[in-house]
Design brief:
200 residues; Rossmann fold; 3-stranded mixed sheet; globular; Methyltransf_25; methyltransferase activity
Amino acid sequence: MKIVSVLEHYELLIDEGNDPIQDPPQLQAYMNRWDGPSFFNELNPENKIVLEIGVGTGRIAKTVLSMGCEFLVGIDISPKTINRARSNLSSFSNIELVMTDIINYNRPNTFDLAYCVLTFLHIEDKKKALSNIYNALKDEGTFVLSVSNDDEWIECGDRKIKLYPAGIEEYVRLFQLTGFQIQSIQETESKYETIITGKK
């Protein structure tokens, strides 16, 4: 089994035809375990300028755009994934897709809301990522993070990808160290995700 980088993994997923927006209902239900009703209730994106960290092929962005956000910026490290998201979200004009990662993204005091589902498991320097998110938010801006319990490696077919898991206590510490005021911490009924909401 070969070890690949996160970028290689997500590029390969597109090559393999993996696009959650195109998934059958059973697979969509599986993915929704990490961003079900509790997650979307925390977002409340209507009339807000929104940042999605790890937009992927646009699965969550499609719902957020349909919920009436004013404008959405989605970032992702994979060119092939961004291109697929651009195609999947082509019916929306109030969106910008940017190929970058949150460690290097710098757009201060821009967003009312930022959110991230599962992407933080790929981020080693979580403090830097949270600091960039904090700086990207306007005063009173909100960040909603959905995290899962993971091992240090995931396997996908013939490849392995290194992860950087952290416990909820560590996330809370980093949120507070960055300057976020914790608004809520909730474990969903599915037990697959914990949602942490912080306010600037």
